[in-house]
Every structure is written in C-alpha cells, then in structure tokens.
Amino acid sequence: MKENKVIFWTNIVFLTLIVVATIIFMTGVLSPYIIKTLDSVLFVLCGVVNLIFLYRYKKEGSVYKAFILLAGLIFACVGDIVLISNFVLGAIFFGVGHIFFVIFFYSLNGFNYKDILISLGIFIVCLLLIFLLPVFDFGNFLLVVIFYALIISFMLGKAASNYINTKLPCNLILFIGAGLFFFSDFMLVFDRFTNLGEVFGLLCLATYYLAEFLLAMSIYNVSYDNTRAAKMSTKE
C-alpha cells in the first residue's frame, strides 16, 4: 500500500539523519551541544511524525499509548542534552523517561508474573556488577546509579516479557530497542565511572541513538498490532 511505502521511507530518512549526526558527534567536529541536541531532537521528531501517521491513517488501537511512548522520548531527549553538563539532572530526566517507557510497555500487555521475575533478575545482575567490579568509582553517585539501574531493569524486563508472551514484530522491535538502550546505559556507566578508555563512550553513542530510533518508529504500529492480537486472543 502507498501509505506503507511513505511511512517506511520517512523512517529510513530519519534513520539516515540520525546515523549521520551520530557520526559527526563522534568525530568532535562540531560543538557537542549543537550536534547532540540535533541528534536528540531528530528521534523525537521521528516519534511525532509516526504519531501523525497513526492519526492520519486511523490505525486501530489506543492513541494514548503512543503519547506515553512519545513522552518518554521527550524526557530522554532533554536528559541527553542536560547530561553533557550535569550528570545528576540528566539522569533524573532519563529516569522519568524510562518510567514512561515502563508504563508504556505495561499498557501493551498488562501485568504478568514473568515481568517481575525477569526485571528483578536483570536488576540483581546489575547490582552484582556495580558492587563487585573493582573498576568502578561512583563516589557520591552510587545511589543515583542504583536507582537508575532499577528503572531500566524493569524497562528491559517488561519489554522481554512482552515479546515472550506475544511474539509480534512490534514487540520484537521494542525489545531490541530496550536492549540497546540498556546496553548503551551500561556503556555510559563504564565511560563515566572507570578509566578504561574511550571505547565505552563510543559504544554508548553507537547504540543509544539506534535504540531511540527503534522506539520512535514503533509508535505507528505498536498500538495497532497489540490491539489486534488482543482481539484475536479474545475470539479464540
């Protein structure tokens, strides 16, 4: 269908722009405030455009779910920009963004006991790494890191549980996006609180913006696909 081609190529354009902006940011040619702000705004615009597509083509599903995901993208965008100069404030914005992501994931498939088990399992692994790896020096930021690890563990855990319970393409994309987001934040911790080299900062950037793009592009299909699956399950 024509609408599908328009949506596909629009997202490809956004992905290309995000990749180019990320590469420029890594080279350090332009001011980090300028290029990082541009990069972050791009994935928010991608989400807005996909929300417009959702409304324009009247896909089934609750549009409010898309707004929850978009809110998470906006807070992540602000946190990404603020993080350059203020780690704590940036982490707070990111934390709020992740809370919106968690709410969004729960709005798709509801509560399941697997959600808690998987999320707590991920969080326990995070705590073990935080306290047992001698390379970290968190100083006064230890509580901030632990709280942030808790939130993102529940985000990734619920995304994984959603895909395990309902193997839809959109849930797979969201799981990959959440996984890349988790990996990116893990690399950020190594970059900020160890002296192991710049490779962790590069890995953080290489996965972060791709993760945000996957979440942004999911806005169009995710509500429709999960609502359709719920209807099919009810009929059965």
What attributes characterize this protein structure?
236 residues, mainly alpha, 9 helices, disordered C terminus
Written description of the protein model:
With 236 residues, the protein is mainly α. 41% of the residues are buried. 84% of the residues lie in helices and 0% in strands. It has nine helices and no strands. The longest helix has 26 residues, at 2-27. It is globular.
Summarize the structure.
This protein has 9 helices and no strands. It is mainly alpha-helical.
What percent of the residues sit in helical stretches (DSSP H or I)?
Answer: over 70%
Span of the ends, CA to CA? 29 Å
**Largest sheet features:** none
Rg over C-alpha atoms, rounded to the nearest angstrom: 18 Å
Succession of helices and strands = HHHHHHHHH
- In percent terms, what proportion of residues is strand? under 5%
Number of helical segments?
9
Structural class, judged by helices and strands? mainly alpha
Number of strands: 0
Overall body shape: globular
Mean pLDDT: 87
Query: What are the low-pLDDT stretches, counting only 5+ consecutive residues below 50?
Result: 230-236
SSE inventory with pairings:
Elements: H1 2-27, H2 32-56, H3 63-82, H4 87-109, H5 113-132, H6 142-165, H7 169-193, H8 199-217, H9 219-235
Helix pairs in contact: 1-2, 1-8, 2-3, 2-8, 3-4, 3-9, 4-6, 5-6, 6-7, 7-8
